[in-house]
Known about the structure:
The protein is of the alpha+beta class. The protein folds into 2 domains: about 1-240 and about 365-410, 3-Layer(bba) Sandwich (FAD/NAD(P)-binding domain), CATH 3.50.50; about 245-360, Flavocytochrome C3, Chain A, domain 1. It is about 30% helix and about 25% strand. It has 10 helices and 22 strands. It has helices at about 25-35, 75-85, 95-110, 145-155, 225-230, 260-265, 290-305, 325-335, 335-345, 400-410; strands at about 1-5, 5-10, 10-15, 20, 40-45, 60-65, 120, 125, 125, 135-140, 160-165, 165-175, 180-185, 190-195, 200, 235, 240-250, 275, 315, 355-365, 365, 380. The chain has a 6-stranded mixed beta sheet with strand order 1-2-3-14-13-12. The chain has a 5-stranded parallel beta sheet with strand order 11-5-4-15-22, with helices on one face. The protein has a 4-stranded antiparallel beta sheet with strand order 17-20-19-18. The radius of gyration is 22 Å and the shape is globular. Flavin-adenine dinucleotide (FAD) binds near residues 60 and 205.
Amino acid sequence: MVIGGDIMEGDIRIIETDVLVVGAGGAGARAAIEAALNGCKVVISSKGHITKSGITPLAEWSYEAPLGHADPRDNSEIHFKDTVIEGRFLSDQNLVEALANDAVERVKDLEKFGVKFKKSNDKFVQTKIPGQTYPRSVMIVNGGMGMMLGLKKEINRYENIQSLEDTLITKILTKNNKVVGATFLDLKKGKFGYIKCKAIIVATGGYEQLWPVTDTPPESVGDGFALAYRAGAELVDMELLLFYPVVVVYPEHARGIIIPYECCIEPEYVGGKLVNGKKKEFLPEGSPPVRDILIRKMFDEINEGRGTKHKGIYLDLTRSPKSEEEITNYLESMISSTFRHLLELGIDIRKEPIEIAPAAHYTLGGIKINEEGKTNILGLYAAGECAGNVQGANRLSGNALTETQVFGAR
Ligand SMILES: Cc1cc2nc3c(=O)[nH]c(=O)nc-3n(C[C@H](O)[C@H](O)[C@H](O)COP(=O)(O)OP(=O)(O)OC[C@H]3O[C@@H](n4cnc5c(N)ncnc54)[C@H](O)[C@@H]3O)c2cc1C
């Protein structure tokens, strides 16, 4: 029997395609578009609804692209250098080169797909984030959700892309070290199926849900690592995980909400302070250090007994030298969705310190790939957060969304 082009063998649905994309976040969506553009028949699968599943829809606005609009001295070589240095020289430099070389072109693609960026006089607004030599982060309007809506709109234009939502890929099938298909579970109907394909692109995000405090969604349990590993793919740097410094630990109803610290404690913007449980500042004056160094300092305070009651640190904007109006303007223009979300929960970070702590945020290790996203299994590719060794031992803010677009398209 045939249903909508698919074959039914008893209760088992069988789908034939050229390329199966596992995951429909930023990387999976971009990979599906590229494969379709090249004339392939594509199936894109997701555990939930596209635009509502995975980390990308929750992301903030920061995307690193060395356009040089804020400072003409910036370019892809400096982007490469910053990424390698801040990754503590542990990244695969061929992958970093690909990231830095393609970052700008992929922003232009996103614009074509309808994604909006903050602009001034026709130029991209570019913000400086710790670790960047020059301001490099372009600002996606409505953050990761804004990016996903543009990608979804583009996917809808292709008749050769079939979406399988609410679908869990359960196993990658190989023959003689070559991909031949995958099995899946239809989560709504509770029925199994089989996808016959020539290539699979794994784009399943990270595994942060294994940690008690994380700002990621429930889907981030690392399915892709297990799928690829069981199919014989090599994994790399699995011990490396990036924590985000400023995630709410208390009050309980706001636990897990990320507060972009770059805006809150950078003296150029809000200029708030991080203080320990004894209400003492512990960072040197000036711009905050990059994430891994900052986090180590925060953990030192917490582990040496100077943390807050809920094993955190206070983010204190009341110590900012700026007026409430200036602070509000920065919060509204740079992190408005988080600011408003907290206000809706009855928390006004302008008026009182809030307890925050580092939380599991981004999986640095993952499936080992080369510059084309290829693994050691023929026909098996990986892209986005589930691919390892792009960022090294520490990721600069904004480089993950860039990674989804660069490696999704490769
Ligand atoms: C709160 C937050 C804010 C962030 N802000 C930024 C930022 O401003 N800038 C930046 O660069 N980075 C940011 N990051 C990191 C960045 O958002 C992620 O690294 C990136 O979006 C990951 O995209 P992805 O496509 O690789 O994976 P995801 O977006 O997580 O997508 C994974 C997809 O795989 C699917 N999936 C998983 N397992 C299976 C399976 N077995 N079968 C079928 N489908 C499956 C999921 O359903 C989902 O569709 C942020 C992260 C967080 C948590």
